[in-house]
Amino acid sequence: MFRKILVALDHSKADAALLPQVKELARLTGAELLLLHVATGWAAQWQRNLNLSDSPEIHADREYLQTLQNDLSREGLRVRSRLASGKPSDEILKSAREESCDLIAMTTHGHRLLEDLIYGTTITRVRHESDVPIFLVKASETGGEV
Hints:
The protein is α/β, with parallel strands linked by helices and 146 residues long. It has helices spanning 15-29, 42-50, 56-74, 88-98, 114-119, 121-129; strands spanning 4-9, 32-39, 79-85, 103-108, 134-138. Helix 1 links the parallel strand 1 (4-9) and strand 2 (32-39).
């Protein structure tokens, strides 16, 4: 069914709603997980152009991904991680294509009206431009499952 699932993580409590669902799906299908986080801070955006060293944000993001990868591997799942920088929707779509993912898993925060215009652009763009299905899990305000 699914061979490789891109798991878009935002390094927040919302990830706690997504990961249990994705783990179960991976177990059921035997899919490999590709954990992706897109760093969006100033240093991450300009690191390559200005030849900057890793910022504390980048260090924290790498450590977060590595910890999740190790934890999921210990649970018997096939998992890799990838840290990208740039516009999240661009990097999610690019990574899904480059890695031949056949499902993209993301959280939605359930914003309304004005917040959708500000915060909902990543999901909207990925949903409209993805060549593969999208699996959305709504994150609760506390970050756990809804």
